[in-house]
Design a protein that fits this description.
- With about 170 residues, the protein is an all-alpha fold.
- It is built from six helices and no strands.
Length: about 170
């Protein structure tokens, strides 16, 4: 059985290449990236001004999201995470596991065949593999870590470490 901390580290490792690729693109790199200005595309599609500003200043919002996901994984496995309301970690943790795992796996399988999800025309196949690995890796890590967190913080199950003070009767 995989230790939750190992799963969290594996999830973070799966996200790292994606965050680096997106940061490279935000700073003007072009390897694997479709032609065009992403900031201009975001603006034309009505994205919030803050996202356009971030993209123009070398900070891709999805790379920031990947860093936030790494912090979220840490909250699921570190003692300080048990101080947060259970639902605030379990609801997004399980939702992310159920949505991201199949999305990432399908993306990794489809990308080498030139099949994409959404508006990804012109992207290199390796971009889909990097993104698929990030999403599937995060999804699997969220599943393992959420299951562990749910068990560790359950009341009345014999092990209530991190579940807060026991209710008084």
């Amino acid at each position: 059985m995989t230790k939750p901390s190992t799963a969290a580290w594996a999830g973070a490792a799966a996200l790292a290449p994606y965050a680096m690729m997106k940061t490279y693109w935000a700073f003007g790199g072009t390897a694997g990236k479709p032609a065009g200005d992403l900031a201009a595309q975001l603006e034309a599609n009505g994205a919030p001004d803050v996202l356009v500003w971030m993209e123009r200043h070398g900070l891709d919002f999805t790379a920031v999201g990947a860093l936030a996901a790494m912090l979220f994984l840490a909250a699921l496995v570190m003692p300080w995470g048990a101080r947060l309301p259970r639902w605030s970690l379990l609801v997004p943790g399980w939702a992310g596991a159920l949505a991201l795992t199949p999305y990432g796996l399908v993306t990794m399988i489809a990308a080498p065949f030139g099949l994409t999800v959404g508006d990804a025309e012109g992207w290199s196949a390796w971009v889909g593999i990097v993104a698929g690995l990030a999403f599937a890796g995060l999804g699997i890590a969220l599943g393992v870590c959420s299951r562990s967190y749910q068990r560790r913080t359950r009341r009345g199950a014999g092990d209530t470490r991190g579940a807060g003070p026991a209710p008084t009767v």
